[in-house]
Amino acid sequence: MKFALFLGCNIPARVKQYESSARAVLENLGVEIFDIREFNCCGYPLRNLDFKAFVLASAKNLALAARENLNLLTLCKCCYGSLKKVDHLMRENQSLRDEINAILKKEDLKYDGGLQVKHFLTVLFHDVGIGSIAKRVTKRFDGLNIATHYGCHALRPSKIVEFDDPVKPSLFEKLVELTGAKSIDWKAKLDCCGAPLLGVNDELSMRLMQKKLKDGKESGADYLCVACPYCQLQFDSVQRMMLEKQHTNTQLPSILYPQLLGLTMGLDSTSLGLDENQLPINGIMKYFPEPEAEEKEEENEEKEDK
Predict the structure, then answer these.
(1) CA neighbor of 159 nearest in space, from 92, 112, 228, 230
(2) Where would a tag sit more exposed on the chain, N or C end, judged by fewer CB atoms within 10 A?
(3) What tens digit of pLDDT does each residue of 212-235 get?
(4) DSSP secondary structure, 19-64, as one string
(5) 249 — pLDDT class (breaks 50, 70, 90)
(6) DSSP β-ladder status, 32-35 and 145-148
(7) Based on the domain organization, do 175 and 287 belong to the same domain?
(8) Among candidates 81, 113, 108, 109, which has minimal Cα distance to 97?
(9) What is the mean pLDDT of the chain?
(10) Helix 94-104 to helix 77-92 angle, to the nearest 10 degrees?
(11) CB-based contacts of 157: which residues, under 8 Å, 6+ apart?
(12) How many distinct structural domains can be found in the chain?
């Protein structure tokens, strides 16, 4: 199982722990990663400014992965949505495909579609499989409540991104519950985190995030869990700023899914980048049962089997 890893712009610069924890988890699961140094921005920032430039940026990334005959794995849901959109356009719109390929030809590249664009979570769920992941889990959380945040770009437009049911998704919950944690039901689960508005309308951006934090906390969550750098920056860095400036009294730390899963696999905290999160998440360790409790549970299970 081998993929070309697309990191995008934000992760290497601002959420390095997402890359390190994802690489550690994928290695543990036997998923081989191929790095393509020529990858550029997915083009998303240009989408509403220069649409063809947006398409060209994504199409070049797709062409680079296709050149290596590899499907593409991305950690960012914004990049995932962009790459899926352009893959769809390049397959369905011949005139646009011809125009973009004429430009790509200058770099000896071409893309006609056919590549599979996958998100980290979909690779875990569909390619690796729940059963295979469960075999790698060496210890499980007990009493930990997690609020899963899907993010916008993974679910819509559903016919293009094909991530999960856009109205009632369950993929993320099932992955979280592999760790022993409970994925809680909360009303704001599918609401926007507010990240796209940051720098445009900060007040509205923070209001949207605060609404999610309040709902998650009131619904019983101990932590938020995300799998997108933009969402993590919003819930981690921006939430910390709001707390420091006393713009909110609601604190709900956010943990990246590969960090959550990696802990149950016994991966070390350095590889998972736990200390790089702005809001401390080391307190999550208290939700692991004490060794003595685990031994007693195993003894009881053995007695029951006899």
Answers:
(1) 92
(2) C
(3) 999 999 999 999 999 999 999 999
(4) HHHHHHHHHHTT-EEEE-TT----SGGGTTT-HHHHHHHHHHHHHH
(5) confident
(6) unpaired
(7) yes
(8) 113
(9) 94
(10) 110
(11) none
(12) 2
Supply the pTM of this predicted model. Answer: 0.94
- Which tokens in the block code for residue 219? 């619904």
Query: Which three-class secondary structure state does DSSP give residue 106?
Result: helix
Round to whole Å and give the CA distance between 257 and 293: 26
Residue type, 216: G
111 and 39 fall within a common domain: yes
Name the residue range of residue 84's domain: 2-120
Give the end of a domain, one of 120, 155, 181: 120
> Is residue 100 located within the same domain as residue 142?
no
Q: Indicate whether 210 pLDDT > 70.
A: yes
Q: Does residue 231 contact residue 238 with C-beta atoms inside 8 Å?
A: no
Tell me whether residue 301 is exposed, middle or buried, using C-beta atoms within 10 angstroms of its C-beta: 0 to 12, 13 to 18, 19 or more.
exposed
301 lies in some domain: no
Structural contact between residues 191 and 147, judged by C-beta atoms closer than 8 angstroms? no
Contacts of 281 (CB under 8 A, 6+ apart): 223, 253, 254, 255, 259, 274
The residues, ordered by sequence, that sit 6+ positions from 291 with a Cβ below 8 Å of its Cβ are none
Q: Is the pLDDT of residue 175 over 80?
A: yes
Q: Mind listing the pLDDT tens digit for each residue in 101-123?
A: 999 999 999 999 989 999 999 99
